Every structure is written in C-alpha cells, then in structure tokens.
Amino acid sequence: MGGLWVLMAPPVQDSSPRPIMDMRAPVSTWRRIATYPSGFECEQDRLDLVATAWKAKNRNAEAQAATSRCYHVDQLRRLGAGSAGGGVDPVRAEPTQYDELIREAADMNRLEYALVKAVIRAESDFDRMAISPKGARGLMQLMPATASDYQVRNSFHPRDNIAAGCRHLRMLLDRYGGSVELALAAYNAGQRRVDECGGVPPIAETQEYLERVLRYRRAYLFETARADNRTAQR
Predict the structure, then answer these.
(1) Domains of the chain, start order
(2) Catalytic site residue 123?
C-alpha cells in the first residue's frame, strides 16, 4: 500500500508511575508520533523505540511505544483522525548554510552527521545567535561552563560552537557506552541527573527533547539516503 504511514500512540488512561494506555479510545484521540514512507519502516521504528526505551529503563516511553500502532493515512481518514499532517511538526530536511561545518565536525569526532544536525535543529533551529533563558548560546546551545571547558571564546561563532558541541556530544557518548538516548538526555538535562536516575530522567522537557532529536535524526538520515541514491543513479 503506497502513501504515508503514521505511528500513533493511544492516550494515557492512568497517570501512575507506569501509565495505562487507553487502547479502546477512538483513534481520532490518539497522538501522532511520526510519519514514514512505508509500513515496514513505521513498524521497524516502533520496535526500535520499544527496545530503546527498555534499555534506558524509561517505562513511560516503553509503554507508549509498545502500545503504539502503525496506520496508513487512508485508514486514519476513515477512522476520523484527519490527515497525517496534524499532531507532529513537519521536519525540515533541506540543506542549511552550516552543513559543511556540521559534517566536518561530525567526522572529526566520529559522530553521525544526521545526529549532530538533529541536535542543532532541536537546540537552536540553526540560529547562531540563539540564547536560552538559562544562558546557553549559539547553534548547539553551549552553557558558559561548557564553552570554557572546550576553550571557546565566542559561542556565537558557528565553527567554534559546532566543534565544541560535537566534542561534548562525543564525550557523552563515550561516557554512556555509545547510548544515543542517554547521551542526548545528558546533553539536555546534565550528566548528574542521568547518573542519579540510571537512565533518561523523568523530566517532561528532556523526554520531549529526546523524542524531537530522534525524529529529526530519522528525517535527516532518510534525506541523506535519498541524496546518495540520486547521486548513485547519475
């Protein structure tokens, strides 16, 4: 069946530490997680999300992923859930002026290009002058202490900011045994909170951040694969 597929999660019926998902709720009330070009990719990603949440000991995310389901857009329309466009912000996967800097810093630190680009998208939306309420600055939102650790004098300088952010992300990946989820959680919430929880902290902001970065990463991986295929066909 051609066309888009959508990963949908049922609403929460019980807000206890291990929530009960309301599988009997109308699909029109379910939450859209992400869209995919095929049902196979949707189901594969659902299984990956279950495994990732289990490894991170994030029981809320595990319950959500385990009870989520893949629907074709035509099915959603018949069930009154509207089009696939609602519920999830569309991911812009087009090139940016920083792509070469991102690729250079990613390669230098043995990082995945799509992951670094996804972090920048989530952190600053590619605004090199971005400043958070907590004082994080630049494309990868370096806190002053982090910038100092990596000897960055000007956090608004794209090359220096991306280079330091990649070094920091590489350090976190090494610290957490290559776990992308834990490294991203520490990038957002700090290493202390991840260490204290022994996994992804039960902080709504961090969990939403993790979901966004992984969603952006999938989009950039997909776009990179399409670009490579177009190049190979020439």
Answers:
(1) 5-78 (no CATH), 99-233 (1.10.530.10)
(2) yes
